[in-house]
Design goal:
This protein is of the alpha/beta class. It has one domain: Phosphoglycerate mutase-like (Rossmann fold). It has helices at 17-21, 34-47, 61-71, 97-103, 105-113, 127-144, 156-167, 213-220; strands at 5-12, 54-57, 78-80, 149-154, 185-191, 194-202. Keywords: Glycolysis, Isomerase.
């Protein structure tokens, strides 16, 4: 009998240097910190017994490297997927959030507090534009891997967008909890066409919890 259950594991990359410095990343990139590598290793250990039919990752180095660490000794390649990249932030990328907030207060406020009104005057993407890039690809992968289990390694806004689509959460509430900590794990199970969210931003595999001082700055500071 064919398996009618499709399981989607989704995670964010590990902490990066720019996360720690509170710089906006978007399509630009910074490397994983030592802690970010540890976070990816913790998730590798938690998922080592899961038989993934495929592992897809944003081609941004921070996400792709996280995926490689999670893959571990599995034989399959990590498949780069452009559609899983973070929201594009244009001229904001690489700049401190404090600088952006000072120079572009209205747009910065909209990004974090009223995403439905955010206009991306920096030359990046709006939230609806990013949604139109990401969600059709996720649907494609679900159909391609019907009855299988797959892993997506992506970014905070992208992950929020994917899970919110299953929740039916309106864009205005995108930033409502939970916080998407580095390598937090979400799990969507689709059975007979009905999706259920079994995990959302779970960090039980973290050996240093996000509420501890060492993680507070990068995990709760506004940096994507």
């Amino acid at each position: 009998m064919a398996n009618n259950t499709t399981t989607l594991y989704i995670t964010r990359h590990g902490q990066t240097q720019w996360n720690a410095e509170r710089r906006m990343q978007g399509h630009a990139n910074s490397e994983l910190t030592e802690l970010g590598t540890q976070q990816a290793t913790w998730l590798h250990d938690a998922l080592q017994d899961i038989d993934f039919a495929a592992i897809y990752a944003s081609p941004s180095t921070r996400a792709y490297r996280t995926a490689e660490i999670i893959r571990g000794q599995r034989e399959q390649a990590v498949i780069a997927c452009e559609e899983l990249k973070e929201i594009g932030l244009g001229s904001w990328e690489g700049h401190l959030t404090s600088e952006i907030e000072q120079q572009h207060p209205a747009e910065f406020f909209a990004f974090w507090h009223a995403p439905q009104e955010y206009q991306a005057l920096n030359g990046g993407e709006t939230f609806p534009q990013m949604r139109e890039r990401v969600l059709p690809k996720v649907d494609e992968l679900i159909n391609l891997h019907a009855g299988q289990t797959i892993l997506l390694v992506t970014h905070a806004v992208t992950l929020k967008t994917i899970v919110s689509s299953f929740e039916g959460r309106p864009l205005a509430r995108l930033w409502d909890p939970p916080v998407i900590h580095p390598t937090s794990l979400s799990k969507i199970v689709i059975k007979d066409g009905i999706a259920s969210i079994e995990l959302y931003a779970d960090v039980s595999h973290h050996q240093i919890k996000p509420s501890s001082p060492i993680l507070e700055k990068s995990a709760r500071g506004p940096s994507v």
